[in-house]
Each structure stands twice: as C-alpha cells, then as structure tokens.
Amino acid sequence: MPTEILMPALSPTMEEGTMAKWFIKEGDNVMSGDLIAEIETDKATMEFEAVDEGVIGKILVPEGTEKVKVNSPIALLLEEGEEMPVSTAMSKSESKISYDEIAADVQHVLEKSFSNSSGGTPGGIDARVFASPLARRIAEEKGLDLSQVSGSGPRGRIIKADVIAAKSVEATVQSTSVRDKMVTSKVTTNDAIIKLYQDRETLEVPLDGMRKTIAARLTEAKQTIPHFYIRRDINIDSLVTLRAQANCQLEPGGVNLSVTDFIIKACAMALQSIPTANCVWTEECLLQLSASDIAVAVAIDGGLITPVIKDADQKSLSELSAEMKDLASRARSKKLAPYEYQGGSFSISNLGMFGIENFDAVINPPQSAILAVGAAKKRPVVDQDGQIDVATIMSVTMSVDHRAIDGALGARLLAAIVANLENPIRLLV
Predict the structure, then answer these.
(1) Cis bond before residue 73 (omega within 30° of 0)
(2) Dihedral of the CA atoms 351, 355, 357, 360 (nearest 10)?
(3) Which amino acids are annotated catalytic?
(4) Is the pTM of this model over 0.70?
(5) Is the separation of the CB atoms in 375 and 209 below 8 Å?
(6) Residue 163, SS3?
(7) Which residue has the higher pLDDT, 419 or 334?
(8) Strand-pair category, 369-382 with 303-305
C-alpha cells in the first residue's frame, strides 16, 4: 500500500503552508534524507527532506498551492515494484476543486485498500461517508451533514446532484462546534464589511499565512496579557560619540555598529543585573532564564518577524552587529530556521529610523516585555547645574506583562537599560 507523505509542521505555530517547489517528480526514486520540496511557512521558506525511501507514485499537491494543512497528504510513496491503487483522477467538471478535496478522496481509497487487505468490514474504517470531492465542497458551503444525505452514485457514492437536491440540515448547523461558529461569524462579518464598500472601488488582498499568524498572536497577546507601560527619555550623546569613535576604528574590518546594536547589548546586560525580570509566564510557574536571549523585530514583506540573538550578554558589540545583520538578511528572504525566531524573554522594536518618536509595542508571547524605541532628537534639557543645554534624546516605552513582572521590578529593569545606554562604556567591558 502506498505511503503518504504528509505536509510537515515546520514550526510550532504552523497550521498550513504553501507548496513552493518540488525537487522531485512522479517516478523518481528517493532515499531518506533527500531534499524533495521547498515549503513556505508563516515565517520562512524551508526545505523538506524525505523520511522513507521509495518511488514517488503521485504528487497530490502541485507547486504554488497555498493553505496546505499540516498533516494532509501531499504525495504518495511506493515501494519497489508497487503500483498505484485505483485512480483518483477527477472529471473535467471537478477539475477546479482544491487539493485537500483530492487528498480526502485519495485517503478514502487508501483506507479502503487497507480495510480489504486486513479483513475489514463495512462497520470498520470503510464505514465513513463516501462522497466525491466536489460533493464535499458543496456540502461544506451549504452546511450539510453528508451522513444524512443518500448517495445516487456508483456503490452509493454521494455526488454533486445529491448535495444540490438535499435540504440544509438546520440541526447540523446548530450543533457545530464553537470554533465553527466563530468561523461562520468571521465570514459573516467579512461579507458585511465588504458590502459596506460595495459602491467604492476596492482591491481585495488575500491574507497569507504570515499575516494570519501575526493577527492571531497579537490578538491573543492583547486579550490575555495584562500590559502596562513605562516610559523614559534617554540622553544618548555619549553613545553617539562612542559609536562614531568605534566605527572609525572598526571601519577597516568592515564593521559598522548601529544604535540598535548598543540597545541590544544594553538590554542583555540589564537582564543579567535584574535576573528576576528575565522570565516568561507559563500559567503554572515563572520560567526564569539564565542567558539573555534578545528578540529584535525585523520588518519584511507582508509582516514582521523577531529573530532571537541567543546569549546576547556574552557577545561583543561587533559580534552582535554581525549576527543581527545576518539574521535580518535571512529573515527578509524567509530563510530563518524555527529555532532562530523562537524563545527569548525580551524583545526590541525600533521604529526610530522611520521618524517615530514614541509608541507602545505589543508583547510577543510567551515573552514578558518589549522595548519600543523611538527616534533620537535634539532637545533642550536642563543640566545638573540648572543650565539649559541641548542634548540628543531618545524616548523609549517598555510594555510589560504584569503577571510576570510587577511595576517596581519593571521600573528597575528599565532604569538599568537607561543607565547602560547613558554610560555606554559599560557595554565595552
């Protein structure tokens, strides 16, 4: 019996992906470890390796197919000398159905084959509803329970005509799960909003996996994490001077330190000095981290991603700079591995390069805090002698999870960050 090759879960948050590219074709021999496909997830584009050896009997999901559910069949693998089972080819009238409908029918053929070979009975695996892919799609759209529909096709198979003729089963709709109800509500809301603008020229831009993931995670964050916000102005004149001197010395080696590099180091060292703030909330305990793993928000086409610099407290500014540039470059090309954007306890989001002076960032769960960094501006200030002077001031706002970090602890952490940035020589030690 053919072995199904399933859409892998390439990250903990992945629910569906895009089949970007096949490296193999039907009839090719593959060995365990061979690269067979390139899959685009909600965060990155990753290569997928074969687990078993055999011959590619059927590719079920063509290149470019979007919204391929995790664990759904994408191809069939045959053993040596094995032939494909009964054809699952569609008629011309059904040629536009989705890949998962094809997969459902293939699954049924495989299950039936298994049932017959193992002495299965009609009351076993094969007792499932037998319907054409097109019929399944129409039934889903109409809210029909296919188990209540009589099939007129070969061997009682439910076909398109049976579904069209069937009446909507109200009880089925009423007995749907909460999740189904939420989906229905979303569809209704979507249709209602679109209707409001039906007399205006609009362009519908489909939501990709990344945008949906961002929406879901940030909605969850704002609904479940009790945010509080603390703000400070930071005099970075000393930092600007030190950065200029350092870059002048490091220029022959191709190193160019950014202000963000200094901020990463300052936050990493602050977490070491206030270790109780270097934690995440788990509902059962506070998980306190030993190392300072700092996530930095990177804007990419269609959204953003937060690669994590591990052990940032142990790395020099030049090492942080090189690693950050590498992570940002691969993030923009969606080439990050999951371990490179997962974890951490603290994030940095810098919109200063866009001229934004201050803003409130949303915490990236399961982390406990995020620092929103604004643009540095020349401002009048009163010095220690009471004299008016001009200084380079950078405003920051730290969003904090009140479950994990109380107000006083958050204030101590931000004070430590400010002290490191206003005395940047500390960052070189």
Answers:
(1) no
(2) -30
(3) 402
(4) no
(5) no
(6) helix
(7) 419
(8) unpaired
